[in-house]
Design a protein that fits this description.
248 residues, 6-stranded mixed beta sheet, alpha/beta, globular
Length: 248
């Protein structure tokens, strides 16, 4: 049997403030660090032993992974980082409060920006201070690769080559692989694995810091998938994600 462990980062400082985050590099809250550590304890208790880890360039994912590995006593594991695992770019609405934005533009418009499959939020200017072009960690990217806004469709398109060429191929060497990333980048992987429609994936909420396990046979055919943890707590977390951008 082969296992893929997906984990969305723990609560971030901007999650707590209900702000659109995207590629903005914000840290975890104390609660986020705690839930990440608890996810690691749960994985250890249930006998999971990942052999290779992948994460994004954003510290909320990197530090979630660090907390998970510390709790598992597996800090030694190899880790590869890629910008392709970054969260969806929310463009010019990055840094805005989700509920206030819904008041200004309406729930329906904000829902399209957040959760439609192919509608992009307003774009950043390439040289806006919030643009990845201004961040040295993305110096390797050409201007055409820099996402100034993205839909979920765009996020999946830049993610999937990395998923197929790197993460999937890791199973040639390893039986258990862990990916710690973001709600929208992980949706791309889930959509592929579960063969979900565009409509199904935009309604699917991934809770913070809850291990999502995919089990495969030796031919990498999916056998089952499940969240690890208390079902009621997981349901509450999913509802919380779904309700973030509603007008208060």
């Amino acid at each position: 049997m082969k296992q893929l462990i997906l984990i969305r980062h723990g609560e971030s400082e901007w999650n707590k403030l209900n702000l659109f985050t995207g590629w903005t590099d914000v840290d975890l809250t104390e609660a986020g660090r705690k839930e990440a550590y608890e996810a690691g304890l749960l994985l250890k208790k249930e006998g999971f032993r990942p052999q290779m880890c992948y994460t994004s360039y954003l510290k909320r994912a990197v530090r979630t992974l660090n907390q998970v590995l510390e709790a598992m006593d597996m800090d030694y594991l190899p880790v590869e980082k890629s910008w392709r695992l970054n969260e969806k770019s929310y463009g010019a609405i990055q840094g805005l409060n989700k509920a206030d934005t819904a008041k200004k533009y309406g729930d329906d418009q904000v829902l399209l920006w957040r959760r439609s499959f192919d509608v992009q939020p307003p774009a950043l200017d390439l040289h806006d201070e919030r643009s990845p072009r201004m961040d040295p960690r993305y110096a390797e990217l050409s201007d055409s690769e820099i996402p100034l806004t993205e839909s979920l469709k765009d996020t999946i398109a830049r993610l999937m080559p990395y998923y197929k060429d790197v993460i999937l191929k890791a199973f040639d060497r390893y039986n258990s692989v862990m990916v710690v990333a973001h709600g929208n980048s992980l949706r791309g992987i889930v959509k592929e694995l579960r063969d979900m429609t565009n409509e199904e994936i935009i309604k699917f909420n991934i809770p913070t810091a809850v291990p999502y396990i995919f089990e495969f046979n030796d031919q990498m055919q999916l056998q089952k998938h499940y969240f690890l943890g208390d079902p009621e707590e997981i349901r509450k977390k999913m509802e919380s994600v779904a309700n973030q951008a509603k007008k208060k």
